[in-house]
Structures are given as C-alpha cells and as structure tokens.
Amino acid sequence: MTSLVVARARLARTKRQNGVLRFAASVGRTTVSIAATLLGLVTLTFFIGRLLPLDPVIAILGDNVSQEAYDTMYRKLGLDQPLIVQYGLYLKNALSFDFGDALTSGRPVLEDIARVFPATIELATVAVVIGTGIGIPMGVLSAMYRDSLIDHVVRMIGLIGYSTPNFWLGLMGLTVFYASLGWVSGPGRVDFAYEFTIEPGTGFLLIDTALQGQWEAFRNVVSHIVLPASILSFGALAYISRMTRSFMIEQLGQEYVITARVKGMSWARTVWVHAFRNVAVQVVTVVALSYAFLLEGAVLTETVFAWPGFGRYLTNALLAGDMNAVVGCTLLIGIIFVAINLLTDLLYRIFDPRTR
After folding, report:
1. 15 in a domain, yes or no?
2. What stretches pass through the bilayer (predicted)?
3. Is 25 inside a domain boundary?
4. Residue 340 CB: number of other CB atoms within 10 A?
5. Domain residue limits at 271
6. CA 298 to CA 204: how far, in whole Å?
7. How many CB atoms lie within 10 A of CB 178?
8. pTM for the full model?
9. What is the torsional sign of CA 141, 144, 150, 152?
10. What is the pLDDT of residues 244-273, one digit of tens each?
C-alpha cells in the first residue's frame, strides 16, 4: 500500500515537472519567435529605407543648401559610415527604445508617436465597435437563413466592403453627409472653437471631454468621429460578418443542433445560446485581428478626413523621406500585431480547454 502511494506521488511530481518544462519551452519558443520577427522587421525596413533614392539631408535642409552645410549634416547623421555600421548603431539604439529624432519635426520619434497615436486608437476603437456590433449579427443571421434573401444581402454588403476603397467612401461620405446634408462635422477631430478649451489628459477626446463635463465639446467630437469611424469600419464589418457566417454554418451542421431542435428548442435559442457559444472564441480572434488591421490601415481614412493620427504621420514621414519615423512606426505596427496574436492565443487557451 505504501509503495503504491509513493508511486502515485512520484507520478504526480513527474507530471508537474513535465508540465513546467513544456510551459518553459513554450515561453522560450514564443520569445525567440517574437524577437526574430521584430528583428527581421527592423532589418528589412532599415535597409529598404537606406537604399531608396531619398536624401534625408535634403529633407532637413532643403534644396538650396550649401555644400559645406550639406556635408556637415551628412556626417552628423552618420551617413558617411558604412551601411552595416549604421545598421549596428541603429539596432543598438532601438534596443533602448531610441529611434532617433524625426527629421521633419526635430523631436524624438517616440515623442511624436505618443502624440499622434491616441487619435488613431480612438478612431479604430470606435470603428471596431461599429464593425463588431453590426458584423456579428449579420453573420449569424446570414448563417441562420442560408441561401435566403437575407444571406444574399449580407454577402453582397461584404463584397462591397471588401472591394470599395476607403478613400472613395470617405470622399463620398463628406460630399453627402457633410457638404450636402450637414448631418456630421467636417475633417479633423474637433472644431477649432473647442480645440483649446479641452485640457490635455488621456489624449482621447471622447474621454477627456466627458471627464471634464464639456458635453457640448463631447457632442462636437462625436459629430467629427462618427463618419470616419463608420467608413473605416466598413471593411472590418465585411470581414467579421463573413467569418462569423462561415463559423456558424459549420456549427449549425453539427449533431447537437439537430438534437436540440428535436427536443423542441427554438431555432433562435439553438443558434444564439448553443451554436454561437462554440464559435465565440474564434469570433473574438477575428475581431482582435480586425482591430490590428484598423490601427495599421487607417492611413487613407486619416488622410481624407485630415485626422491627426498615426496613419497621417506615417504618410507624411514617407513623403518626406524621414526614415527614422518610418522605421519607428513600422516597428510599432509589428509590436501591435505580435501583441494581439499573443492575446488571442491566450484567449484560446482560457476559453477553449481543447487547446491547452
């Protein structure tokens, strides 16, 4: 009896040790994968930026600069050193989160990104809320009534959302809803009359105006954000509804759905309570990836609506040949995608025991 207890204790201890080893190995693989991804992203962007026919000295000093001033700035930027040396110095600084100064603004790149990124987060967050709130019910209804008129309409909306450029939708939206009907405010985040009355806080104007009790300014901010967020959410809505439809169609063909119907459960309850629960984690993954794409893909929308966010900053940096800003922005985008992928993987492990 004693030997049996000892054997069981040893078996349990071995299982715990194996579990710890598997967890440590998983963390190690994930860490190496993240480091390799970010290193590759920085390396590729750096060398492409250096090989492009753009002159950062001209971007700073202008075309009518003397040769002496040009040579001085050239050496100051370290461009007289071999390319591999420039890369090594940049990588060393990047590890300490020093991406240099933006050539266009003269401020540190991280400071510029911290200034413009809240505007993009606010826009993308409102857009993903709209896209999720409409896209998920559309996808579920499309699967419930497969091959019906509802299904065809949802699929047509998804096709339009995939194929229509955001900049065209933005221009049409401004023409119709702002210039013609006057239902929304125009470009920018807030009217000039309120711009200096809002005290800087979180950087999110919806939150700042609400916390400060400036409800008139809050309504003005909502009036500015509703159109660009709706335009930006159209592509996410199409993707979320399409993927939700696919997940639900697969679930609705399972035996437990037929069993629930035979027992007398209503069709709506079977779909929303049982079938949708089984695809919820997959839908969360789709929403999370959509959010990452919205953060990264808001460039054209921000340009059309003169939205002072991350996408517009990156566009201006590209046009000016400001590679410090471009590489810093690219690395931030990579970090966002890696972080969201890790988050979705964690959600899978929490909510779906089969993946543990």
Report:
1. no
2. 20-48, 123-145, 166-184, 221-240, 279-305, 325-348
3. no
4. 18
5. 119-355
6. 17
7. 18
8. 0.80
9. positive
10. 999 988 888 888 888 887 787 888 888 887
Give the three-class secondary structure for 147.
coil
DSSP annotation of 265? -
For residue 282, the domain's CATH number is 1.10.3720.10
Query: Residue 9 and residue 7: Cα distance in Å, rounded?
Result: 5
- Clarify whether residues 137 and 94 are in a common domain: no
Q: Is-contact 91 42, C-beta < 8 A?
A: yes
Cα(350)–Cα(356) distance, integer angstroms: 8
| Pair (167, 299) in one structural domain | yes
Domain-located, residue 268:
yes
Q: Same structural domain for residues 285 and 344? A: yes
pLDDT category of residue 10 using cuts at 50, 70 and 90: low
The dihedral through the CA atoms of 129, 130, 132, 134 has a sign that is: positive
Q: How confident is the model at residue 200 (pLDDT cuts 50, 70, 90)?
A: confident
Residue 234 lies in a domain: yes
Give yes or no for a contact between 351 and 281, defined as CB atoms under 8 angstroms apart.
yes
Tokens encoding 350: 């929490």
Q: What is the mean pLDDT of the chain?
A: 81
